[in-house]
């Protein structure tokens, strides 16, 4: 089973607000890749994203745009994904100078998930971070869009 895939960000990836997962990689995973994926970056933040299918291709979709914006990903960035299991990936992000990006050291340990239009919110406590989760699936590991905390309920 493959464990890694990489991609160079091109303009249509940013315009389409989704990232194609290589077809051969998905094919070798078989049914193991679910409709949701977890992406972990080196600073410990955890991102939940939707995996959508369109014309025989699989994409990181819902949640991808927040991930891109939070990490200031632009055309020419190189991303390396390592697959663990259970639709969990570890990602390394390299800028156009081929250096791994600097992840924020003073990161506020609070994330916001914009998971569709549902107003049901939950907080998920992770080893090094917290993310508010809604019903469907986008995760933004920054503060709430308006800068204010919402009233989360702890998930167990």
TrEMBL record:
It holds the Pfam family B3. Coiled coil: none annotated. One of its GO terms (cellular component) is nucleus. Gene3D superfamilies: DNA-binding pseudobarrel domain. Keywords: DNA-binding, Nucleus, Transcription, Transcription regulation. It is found in: Nucleus. One of its GO terms (molecular function) is DNA binding. Residues 4-97 form the TF-B3 domain. PANTHER family: B3 DOMAIN-CONTAINING (PTHR31920), BINDING PROTEIN, PUTATIVE-RELATED (PTHR31920:SF51). This is TF-B3 domain-containing protein. It comes from Acer saccharum.
């Amino acid at each position: 089973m493959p464990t890694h895939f990489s991609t160079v960000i091109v303009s249509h990836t940013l315009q389409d607000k989704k990232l194609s997962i290589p077809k051969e990689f998905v094919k070798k995973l078989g049914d193991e890749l679910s409709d949701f994926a977890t992406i972990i970056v080196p600073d410990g933040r955890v991102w939940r994203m939707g995996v959508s299918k369109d014309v025989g291709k699989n994409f990181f979709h819902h949640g991808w745009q927040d991930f891109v914006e939070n990490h200031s990903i632009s055309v020419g960035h190189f991303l390396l994904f390592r697959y663990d299991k259970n639709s969990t990936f570890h990602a390394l992000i390299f800028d156009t100078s081929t250096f791994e990006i600097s992840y924020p050291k003073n990161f506020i340990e609070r994330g916001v998930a914009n998971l569709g239009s549902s107003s049901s919110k939950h907080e998920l406590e992770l080893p090094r971070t917290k993310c508010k989760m809604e019903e469907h699936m986008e995760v933004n590991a920054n503060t709430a869009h308006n800068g204010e905390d919402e009233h989360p309920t702890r998930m167990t």
